[in-house]
Structures are given as C-alpha cells and as structure tokens.
Amino acid sequence: MEIPALALIIAALAGMAMAVQGSLNAALGKIIGNLETTLVVHVVGLAVISAALFLFRLGKGHLYLLKDAPWYTYLGGVLGVLIIFGVAASIPRAGVANATTAIIIGQLITALLIDHFGLFGLEKVPFTFWKGLGLACLAAGGYLMFCR
Questions:
Q1: Most buried residue among 5, 77, 94, 133 by CB atoms closer than 10 A?
Q2: Could you give the number of structural domains in the chain?
Q3: Which residues contact 27 (CB under 8 A, 6 or more apart)?
Q4: What is the extent of the structural domain holding 81?
Q5: Exposed/middle/buried for 102, CB within 10 Å: 0-12, 13-18, 19+?
Q6: What tens digit of pLDDT does each residue of 28-44 get?
Q7: Model pTM?
C-alpha cells in the first residue's frame, strides 16, 4: 500500500491543530468548566461548518444521503463530545505533551485494531511485525515522555 505524501502532511497538520485545540480547550475549561467548554467548542464548530456548507457552498452537497448511512456512523458526534471533554480535562492535570502522548498511543492502538479487522467497512490492513515493533518503540517513547 503506497501512502500519498499529501495525506501524511494533512494528517500531521491535523495533529498539530489537535495539540493547539486541546491547549485552547483546557484554557477555556479552567475558566468556564470542561462540560461548558465542550458545548462552546461544538457550537462554534457548528457555526463554522454551517457557514462553509451553506454560505460558501463548500462540500459535495450530499446531505440528502444521510438517511443511507449506517446507524453507527452517527456515533462520531458522541465520540467528539467525549474527545473534547477528555482532552480539556486531561491537559491541565497531565500537561500538553504528556496528554498528547497518551492520546497518540491510544489512537495508534485503536487504529491498528480498526485496520487489522477492517472495521466500519474500511479496507483491511494487516498487523505486521514491523507495526508491532513501531508500536513498541512508541510505547517506549511514551514511557520516556512520562518520566520526570
């Protein structure tokens, strides 16, 4: 499987944005509370994406196909709430680098399982020795990040 460089660049930029977003959410959470921050983040996000879709006419325009999506694909919204709350709650206690390290390790373990089993209708990408070695190295790096 060849991995397009642009996809990796976009993913890296998304990761960078997540670290900044988590920090901003944690700062707001200290002021108004983590549940309140989760609400504000989603309301602001709703306003931005609504403008993109309806004011600027971006996107494919296929919202009418929403009824054809499997029920479990709607759980992304629930997970979004858990993610925003979890990040806002963990960063002040663990620090941005430690929380982000834990997030990345959790993401990678979950991603490897999703790939290996081809969950949610995605293409199966088998777990290999090299991926296991990469995970072990990441876990070792995570351990070093958590050391004082």
A1: 94
A2: 1
A3: none
A4: 5-146
A5: middle
A6: 999 999 999 999 999 99
A7: 0.82
